[in-house]
Amino acid sequence: MSVLIVDDNDMTRETLRVILRHDGYNVIGEALDGDAALEMATRLKPDIILLDVVMPKVSGIEALKSIRMVMQDVFVLMVTASTDQEVVSEAVKSGISGYIIKPFNAKKVLDTVGNVVGKVRANRKQKPAQT
Known about the structure:
By secondary structure, this protein is of the alpha/beta class. The chain has a single domain (about 1-125), classed as Response regulator (Rossmann fold), CATH 3.40.50.2300. It has helices spanning about 10-20, 35-45, 60-70, 85-95, 105-125; strands at about 1-5, 25-30, 50, 75-80, 100. Strands 2-1-3-4-5 form a 5-stranded parallel sheet, with helices on both faces. It comes from Undibacterium baiyunense.
């Protein structure tokens, strides 16, 4: 499974990268902000995007809306320290597949990503192969 990590915090990106790679995920890219997230998601076409909510330039919620316009089938997990119901509600309306609350640990990340992997595989089985 290919994963794009989007977070403005170097340590968060590194931690997620180490956790995911250790468990066999293919981290195909990392972005620092919402603008880069949209560009990289469109170019790299990941199976899963881990997307921070609060970032400079373009927020994770705004980036998610833009990503959804061009990639309806990508699975997006929001990574956030916020438990604000308004933020969570906006993310759900924008089409998240789940979320990871900061601070997180390896088990939480792998459990959440693992749940989405099942959805990715089921989604692939439902789609006819393109020739």
